[in-house]
Specification:
The protein is mainly α and 211 residues long. Helices cover 45% and strands 10% of the residues. It is built from nine helices and four strands; from the N terminus they run ααββαββαααααα. Strands 1-2 form a two-stranded antiparallel ribbon. A two-stranded antiparallel sheet has the order 3-4. The longest helix has 20 residues, at 166-185. The termini are far apart. 16% of the residues are buried.
């Protein structure tokens, strides 16, 4: 598990669901399979149930999965594997060296804790940002933001050349911003439909349908 996490943490490793799955298959032996009940990867004594609950935001019924565990270790392993399936992965904080689990599509470098030994009680992220532009999490050259800025420039060029209706351009800009914000918080969306939906023709078609 440690070797797997260290390879995930390497600066050159691109943390996409496909790459994580490939690395997972390489790090864990192939002899570990579903037929072996005593496998250390098996969720021993875990009970899985499916039930219906109502979402508190709109009170609509949804099907959810409920897992009951006998041991804390079993719950920890299951939670880690569920996170890996969703595109989350372990990351080592560059300030304090503690491990944490990424939960969104943003290029996270620091945990949410406080920097050890800092007299001003600043967070690891605040201390890291003081080290310069390259160490900041929200650098301007973030790939998701870069695509958003590129698309905004394309829309502005069309406006300047009178090749697009101002109302349509306004709607396209709003859609592009909403999609960029969503890409920061959703791994699946950022690595899936984000690039396709940010194409200029796709934005225009969606904006026209909304207008």
């Amino acid at each position: 598990m440690t070797a797997f996490a260290e390879k995930l943490n390497a600066p050159e490793f691109k943390r996409t669901p496909e790459n994580i799955a490939t690395l997972f298959g390489r790090c864990f032996p192939e002899i570990e399979n579903f037929a072996e009940g005593d496998s250390w990867m098996a969720m021993t004594n875990a009970t899985l149930q499916y039930t219906t609950v109502q979402r508190p935001d709109c009170m609509t019924p949804i099907i959810v999965k409920r897992m009951l565990y006998v041991t804390f270790v079993g719950m920890f392993r299951s939670d880690l594997y569920e996170g890996l399936c969703a595109g989350h992965a372990p990351k080592k904080c560059r300030t304090c060296g503690r491990w944490f689990l990424t939960v969104n599509a943003r290029t996270t470098k620091y945990c949410g804790g406080y920097a050890p030994g800092d007299k001003r009680h600043r967070s690891c992220r605040q201390v890291g940002n003081l080290k310069g532009r390259k160490e900041r999490e929200r650098a301007k050259d973030h790939p998701h933001i870069a695509l958003y800025k590129k698309r905004m420039n394309s829309i502005n060029r069309r406006i300047k050349r009178n090749r697009i209706d101002p109302e349509l351009a306004k709607m396209m800009k709003k859609l592009a911003k909403d999609k960029m914000q969503r890409s920061k918080n959703s791994v699946d969306y950022a690595n899936g439909n984000y690039i396709q939906e940010m194409e200029l023709d796709a934005l225009e078609a969606e904006a026209r349908s909304l207008l």
